[in-house]
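Take a sample.
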Amino acid sequence: MPDSRSLISHLDVPTVDKRIALFTGAYNHVVDGVALTLNRLVSYLEAGDVPVHVFAPSIENPPIEHAGTMTEVPSIPMQGRPEYRVSMGMGPNAIEILDRFKPTLVHIATPDVLGLEALIYARIRKIPVVASYHTHFGSYLEYYGLSWAERMMWSYLRKFYSKCEHLYVPSRSMADVLAEHGIHEGVELWPRGVDIQLFEPGMRSMQWRREQGFADDDIVISFVSRLVVEKGLDIFADVMNRLKADGLSVRCMVVGEGPARAMIEDEVSGAVFLGHLKGFDLARAYASSDVFLFPSETETFGNVTLESMASGVPAVCADATGSRSLVLDGKTGFLAPPRDVDAFTERVRQLVCDADLRRRMSIASRAEAETYSWRLILGRINAFYDRVLTERAAS
């Protein structure tokens, strides 16, 4: 499997007829890394004259103005997380729409009921199938009292992905986890990208910091994500409170919305909550902080970590899947054992107390992030598509 550092390599295969049917559990009804990545992929493909038709759940007045053509599929709110939708399959019109579209490749982003029906459709019609792995399902089970289902989940995923020509994973560490559970055939590395023109250190604004109530000598520690418990919000709160108790001049900046906002508001005094930001506003917030603290151990990649690195902000993250493939421990930031508050606190303290260390890690973070430009990343998966279709045509 190619190394994640070798993003500039190009898979030299001939141009083939591509008509992509994309099936996903998140596309426009919730703002998360999966939806944003897939919308960017569809925009890239259609700009290259590759037809794409997306099948996904939706809601009335969705928060994302989606890219490309999308057919809404039946869905219900997820139990315990009603902002997410659970697909209930294709629905009565999807097969007719698919047949008219005539896909030459099926891409499944979520192995749910919709994904399973898409897999069956493709196999009956002898259409090649690829999949991408966006959610580390095993790490979420514990948070929702479903650890008992882990064995069944891995059994299902092994069978599902064995029917796919390729499985695109976002990080080498995630590929290693899948291999431990018997999923290794056809695995290809497809990291996420970052807009290095938007997210860059020059977006830092002292005036903006002052407008948010930060003093010039405050060390601003940022957290950017959906505000849900599985992102390690309790660890973040504990670290901030310990640093404040030690008399350090630290302030907390939280970007994002979610059901756990009230919890973090209660636990961290003096925090600045900016809500959901995007584009210029988000880039300015990243670059105007000093340390990015992200204790989540549920990431398959970590888009927010990469955005902080591109912004020149050293990151302190959990030594877990996703983050350990992005953060070069001791060079661009630090990794800490998951849920080890002492370790997280000590690593953040090092950065808070050493301005020169922050400066060196800022420069190294930006340099590392520049190897993840979206143009290279999206070109990579397009070439993977070509390879699958070329091999199928030759068989």
